[in-house]
Specification:
By secondary structure, this protein is an alpha/beta fold. The protein has eight helices and 17 strands.
């Protein structure tokens, strides 16, 4: 991208190239909008780390990389422009447009769609930061293979925790789910698979409060949430791993002062995915909504781009 391109004004700038951003690019170009997609890490976002996707309509038994790669190819074929840059600031200008300040350049756009997604939330036990990447992981697809034949603990009781626990049974000799409540919040079909799996044990009303050891963790301290009593479990160093799936932190740092957030930090929008700043839209996992899946991210991207086109007075192509 030339210096001139970096300072020219686009019809829409899309921040984040996950499924929401890529779908937004497709729909924006079908509305003939001059479209720029900015991504700071890898096109496709975190979905490219998902080795198996079985719930995306029309594409059973696929993977995240395949979906993201096809989406990007479609957007590029339609004429969307892509740039690698970490946007650190969005300014709403006096004329109603936006200026995006990145590490590599400054970009101007008439409308903006932020689709930065969300990152893993820490569980909060003592030693979590110390052992992150050295016994504590937040991605079963990335690190599950390192625990082949070993025991793993999965922290969390929601859909993500249950699905990742099932994935880890392919590698681990035993998977222990640590659930702080007396039930899991996972969907019934997934919870049933957990109950029926001979390799999965579930510790209800339990919290991991500390991990300790040398270079790798070797002792875990658990608290019984009903009695308050603690117990220490000791393993040989390197013989087990801890996987944390307790929710995500929405990437909303760019939206401070521009959008309203709920108590969990997710962006509040209307059904057109508009924020309180005219011309600023959001799409994907950073938005307040009941379900966060690839299909809902793609739907958000389509809606946001279509509404951005309407905001600019552009008809949507069929």
């Amino acid at each position: 991208m030339t210096e001139k391109d970096k300072t020219s004004r686009h019809d829409v700038a899309i921040i984040g190239a996950g499924p929401a951003g890529l779908t937004a690019a497709i729909y924006a170009r079908r509305s003939l909008l001059d479209t720029l997609v900015l991504e700071r890490e890898a096109t496709g976002g975190q979905v490219i780390l998902t080795s198996e996707v079985d719930n995306y309509p029309g594409l059973p038994h696929t993977d995240g990389f395949t979906i993201a790669d096809a989406m990007q190819g479609q957007a590029m074929d339609l004429g969307a422009e892509f740039a690698m840059d970490d946007v650190c600031k969005i300014e709403h200008m006096a004329d109603g447009g936006f200026e995006l300040v990145g590490n590599e350049g400054t970009y101007q756009a008439k409308t903006v769609i932020v689709s930065g997604g969300a990152s893993p939330r820490n569980a909060g036990f003592v030693g979590e930061d110390r052992f992150a990447g050295h016994g504590v992981s937040y991605c079963a697809t990335c690190d599950g293979m390192f625990y082949r034949g070993k025991q793993v603990y999965v922290i969390g009781g929601g859909n993500s925790a249950a699905e990742e626990a099932l994935f880890l049974t392919r590698f681990a000799s035993k998977v222990t789910m640590v659930v702080r409540k007396d039930h899991m919040r996972a969907q019934a079909s997934v919870a049933k698979q957990i109950e029926e799996s001979p390799r999965v044990e579930v510790l209800y009303n339990t919290t991991l409060v500390a991990a300790d050891g040398g270079e790798l963790p070797s002792t875990l301290t658990f608290r019984d949430n009903l009695t308050g009593e603690t117990r220490v479990v000791t393993h040989e160093e390197g013989s087990f791993g801890i996987f944390v799936f307790v929710g995500r932190l929405p990437a909303t740092r760019l939206l401070e002062g521009l959008a309203d957030l709920d108590e969990q930090g997710y962006v509040v929008t209307n059904d057109r995915l508009e924020t309180r700043t005219p011309g600023l839209f959001v799409a994907g996992d950073l938005r307040q909504k009941p379900l966060r899946q690839i299909v809902t991210a793609a739907a958000d991207g389509a809606i946001a781009a279509t509404c951005a086109a309407a905001f600019l007075g552009r008809p949507v192509e069929g």
